[in-house]
Amino acid sequence: MYCCCWGTFLCFQSLLTFNEWLKKWLLVFPHFCLGRGLIDMAMNQAVTDVYARFGEEYTKDPFRWDFVGKNIFFMLVEGFVYFTLNVLIQYRFFLDHWLSDYKQTVVQDEDDDVAEERQRIYMGGSKKDILQIRDLSKTYVGRKRAAVDRICVGVPTGECFGLLGVNGAGKTTTFKMLTGDTDVSFGEAAVAGYSILTEIHDVHQNMGYCPQFDAIDELLTGREHLYLYARLRGVPESEIPKVAEWGIQKLGLTEYAGCSAGTYSGGNKRKLSTAIAMIGCPALVLLDEPTTGMDPHSRRFLWNAIMSVIQDGRAVVLTSHSMEECEALCTRLAIMVNGTFKCLGTIQHLKYKFGDGYVVTMKINAAKASLSPELEPVESFMESSFPGCVQREKHYNTLQYEIASSSLARIFQLVVANKDRLSIEDYSVSQTTLDQVFVNFAKQQMGEDEDVTLHRRTARKDMKILPVKGK
Ligand SMILES: Nc1ncnc2c1ncn2[C@@H]1O[C@H](COP(=O)(O)OP(=O)(O)OP(=O)(O)O)[C@@H](O)[C@H]1O
């Protein structure tokens, strides 16, 4: 019995000590200080009431240190400390220091156009560009590999810059960093001279964004959306109806402008999202796959709207999985793989540099109607005239070759000169499509986690499906 009581007492003592210790340590939380202070004051009032019932006076100074004084003191100190901490976090004070290692790693195996653009940005050559991106990077928490890895680009006025890449390449993450939707892990970017790190409100004033998934309110009509966003963008009240009507006309939404957006088809929602991005004439318009789900007519309508933005001397950054769209709109483009730019330049330049050269298709005549066309002479002619050419297809009377290292004029010259001798009925010469260039790069994203470098034409053949050698 004695032991049991002694044990309980000891346990009680240690609990009391623990309680005292906890009451001290929990003072670092302002919520605890406030709560504890209020409880102590309430208890003090209860004790005063009890004393009063017995006709005695009980007064205790509430500001005493061991009463509410320490709680008030800690709350004051914490208010100052936490506010300072908040400001430092807001302005990325710690992040910049923690991530300083990022700066020191060198980008390896970079395409020369991408490296040239990087140098241009480093040397300050993009000062006049509407969008300047310098080493912009993002690594999501829990991810080993960066979703966006030190990309550099400058987009001048009057340019439509295309950002291509397979799913997961990092296009949307880039947009999210530019719009402030997600934190930047490293690097910086500026829109119309305003930094996305420190002047995001000014950035928003100069930027329109059409996100990949329509951010629209199902209950508002198309017109109401445009009114709302025009107001948010700071369009003067008297001009809002005019601006909203402009958006409705521009994107062909006249018929649906009065209907609630919840009833819109997928394509019309995209149109509305694009109209919202364009409202108020921002200097930079970011469009994340704006034509997804649109019919060809609407798509062309939207292309015209995008063209008018470029002609206005503003800039557009566009992501799309339609090469046709990129060919129609983009003045320059970059293909993103695993968060990095693998190539950058005009479409023609990329086709020439990374494309498979030219594709020659020939139809061969039979010497007599009863005989099969003779393909061997044409095959030996192609192999001797264009060493290294690759036979892509061989059918009954058709041959198709891929010629990497020859000029268009030489191909025409040789084929025309030997046309009759080789019984070539007709032929066509076409350049590599942007699709082929894209597919070559896309293979890298689908491959191993480790980056694979794509070199110019010499290395390109390694990546191709083996040609048909149907002899
Ligand atoms: N919130 C997130 N948390 C963790 N990882 C993410 C998050 N968002 C994107 N990622 C990862 O970052 C990488 C890039 O994704 P992102 O959405 O930017 O690609 P994308 O090029 O826009 O693809 P898509 O063409 O499908 O839109 C992917 O590997 C993706 O899984």
From TrEMBL:
Record InterPro entries: AAA+_ATPase, ABC_transporter-like_ATP-bd, ABCA, P-loop_NTPase, R2_ABCA1-4-like
Segments forming domain ABC transporter: 131-363
Keyword terms of this UniProt record: ATP-binding, Membrane, Nucleotide-binding, Transmembrane, Transmembrane helix
Keyword rRNA-binding annotated: no
Superkingdom of the organism of origin: Eukaryota
Record field: transmembrane: 72-94
Keyword Transmembrane helix: yes
Pfam family for this entry, one: R1_ABCA1
GO MF annotations, alphabetized: ATP binding
Protein name: Retinal-specific ATP-binding cassette transporter
Lineage of source species: Eukaryota, Metazoa, Chordata, Craniata, Vertebrata
